[in-house]
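Issue 218. Parser rejects a valid record. Input:
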Amino acid sequence: MNNHQYYLMIQQFTLFSDFFMHAVFSHSREAVQLLARILTGKAELIVVEWGLEVKKGFPFFRNDRYDLFIIDQYGNVYNIEIENTLRALGKRAFHNMCLLGSQGLKPGEEHKDLRENWVVFLTKKDFLNQNEPFYSYEWFNRKWKRILHTKAHIRFVNGEYRGDDAIGKLMHDFHCTNPDDMFYDELREAVSYFKKEPKGVNAMCEIMREFEKESRNKGRAEERKKAKKRMEAIMRKLYAKGMDCPTIAEVTGQTVSKVETFFQKQALNKG
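Output the parser choked on:
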């Protein structure tokens, strides 16, 4: 694609568009702070550190990448995910919270020093179809109707909500393709940079070009992997019919050395 084609695509992006969202929030601390304040209801929250695509996990276990990772002025930690699907959200939120909580204390700190951990999934569709702005979950004893105070908060924000309040206006802005239609100045300025200003548009075009290149390379790598598997299956069938390695090499167009190495590895794996 050329830059004009990229430009036309950029004009259709919203903040639910994955790498466009990443570019916008990487660029603007003010936009990140606005987002965190509205999604958590903490009007005084100050973003001290933030990052996009932040990797969390432990050796030998599954690692996850957080869309947005934030630390506020009190050391509280926030994971915000922008989601276009509703697949396994409860289990994913629990797993993300476990990762945050397990890394919440430094050596020597007491459990009473544990800071707040927030996992917020901003979903394009209504998570529970109740038309509420958000759905919050806490540890709760059903019999005694008591909340266990863990400082762990899980929240699903309804991207379809359009109430005349802060979240309703934010969700409106997330669906806007034209930044001039946005309510919030912080988002309007950050989005306009990548949609209207030459420097920002060129940066976005370069991001898309790299993404397209990576996708092509990934596609080629996967195709080569499939072709290799097909060839290996053919060689196994020919060998099972009694063909020797030189004949298999001649039939498949491989070198004799490559065929022999393949069957040597097969024998070792079986052993």
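Fixed in the parser; the record now loads. The longest strand covers residues 47-56.
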